[in-house]
Amino acid sequence: MNRIVFVILVVAGFNFSSAQNIFGKWKTIDDETGETKSIVEIYENDGKVYGKIVDILTDNRDAICSKCEDDKKDKPVLGMVIIDGLKKDDEAYEGGTILNPENGKVYKCRLKIEEDEDTLQVRGYVAFFYKTQYWERVD
């Protein structure tokens, strides 16, 4: 009987820990330079996940997305939604896109919380080619 109770508690604890919270503010960190660039707020709307730039941490606070090709063209980067339409799939969020405002390109996107829960793995990819950044949670 004690084994059954132990197994139930372990399984319940595992299910609780896998419900990591992706929502909130994240500091973006350039994977090549290590430079902090912005704060992105990740939120849910109508069952999908989005991310919006809420602060720019570089000298270029008035940046515009001059290389964008859609309705974001020549719009301010500050306040821009760059993560669009992800859905939860097991322990990751996928099925949407991420925009790189520096080059105007849109990539398929996957977000996943690391074990420490204060690091977000952000992966943008085209076919089999991908690039990964690790963002830090902002208190």
Automatic annotation (TrEMBL):
Residues 24-137 form the DUF2147 domain. InterPro entries: DUF2147. Keywords: Signal. The keyword Signal applies. It holds the Pfam family DUF2147. The keyword Signal applies. Coiled coil: none annotated. Residues 1-19 form the signal peptide. This is DUF2147 domain-containing protein. It comes from Winogradskyella luteola.
